[in-house]
Amino acid sequence: MEEIFVENILNKALKCHSLNKEEIITLLQYGGDKLIHTADNVRKKYTGDGVYIRALIEFSNYCTRTCYYCGLRVENNKIHRYRMSVPEIISAAKDAIEKGFHTIVLQSGEDSRFKIDELCRIVEEIKKNDAAVTLSIGEKSFEEYKRLKSAGADRYLLRIETTNRELYQKYHPKMSFENRLRCLEDLRTLGYEVGTGSLIGLEEQSVEMIAEDILFFKKINADMIGLGVFIPHPDTPLGRADAGDFELARRAVSVTRLILPDINIPATTAMETLKPNGRLLVLSAGANVVMLNAAEDTEHKKDYSIYPDKAGVNEGLEESLAGLKNSLDKIGRKIIVSKGFRYNNRGG
Ligand code: SAH
Predict the structure, then answer these.
(1) Is the minimum distance from the CB of 270 to ligand 1 under 6 angstroms?
(2) Is 347 inside a domain boundary?
(3) What per-residue string of b and e applies to 212-228 under the rule 16 or more CB within 10 Å gives b?
(4) 233-289: per-residue pLDDT in tens?
(5) Which helix (H) or strand (E) holds 282?
(6) From the CA of 70, how far away is ligand 1's center (Å)?
(7) Ligand 1 site, residue 180, Cβ cutoff 6 A
(8) What's 52's domain CATH number?
(9) How far does residue 7's CA lie from ligand 1's centre (Å)?
(10) Average of per-residue pLDDT values in the chain
(11) Is the residue at 348 inside a domain?
């Protein structure tokens, strides 16, 4: 019975790339291999077989926030904090560009020590090279986003984490869902390519809530969607909670691809951490982007412990790149050397 439903819903998605909440819920629950294959075909048709690579620099693990799930939260005093200097960040970015990367992703906790002038200087320096800059540094004011855009930043990643307000409030004390929405709107107004996404597998998060997240991605016409799967960090209030369901998160990637066919979707590190080969499984389910950690200092990679045992922390950038090339070969995909904007995707 469900199979007929799934088939009909997939046919509808192929025709109009639009689904209602009930249909999305059915796919999230019963989508199975048919969903995965259909999403993989849509990915191929709209973005081709290429995989965009991004070099990720996690430049500070200081954070003023208290997100319940995240190991960087201010109340975690077991973590060893680090902050790269401006020259170190610029040099790591240049090094990654020399190794063939055309997008640098700068990510950090919400570290108030970095003033906007410094951040702008970093962006300006990196933009002197042939590379796109993506920022993932949390909530800022319109003026700050504007200055960073003027400095040359191209894209911004800010996950909504969950669109369910009650859940959002519960896991993000002293933060405001409205402000998060405001940030995403401002980023759009300012002309950034906007990336958002959710954390799949939080306690009390229903399939219906995930469906609402996916409808939200469609509503704001996000350019990138990063879906992570929750991994408990022992030094957080959710340390004893169960990890999220890998397969459910993978189906969420597939449904997102069906309704936003030409966007960029990374196979996230959390997915690789939770399951061996997780990255390839997600690349075969609709994803077309991989972010590789470009830190020169292995200790920094370990200390950026948003969750424990992060995949790839013991590898250097060249090693991870070689490993990725190898595994992409096995699934008939290849790395594309490009800045990899959404508008670079072919369209169906
Ligand atoms: N401070 C930045 C970057 C945060 S870290 C910001 O606010 O955007 C990047 C992502 O890690 C977060 O958006 C969150 O979805 C994810 N994350 C944090 N803790 C996690 C955990 N325990 N398991 C899986 N993903 C987690």
Answers:
(1) yes
(2) no
(3) bbbbbbbeeebbbbbbb
(4) 999 999 999 999 999 999 999 999 999 999 999 999 999 999 999 999 999 999 999
(5) helix 278-283
(6) 6
(7) no
(8) 3.20.20.70
(9) 34
(10) 96
(11) no
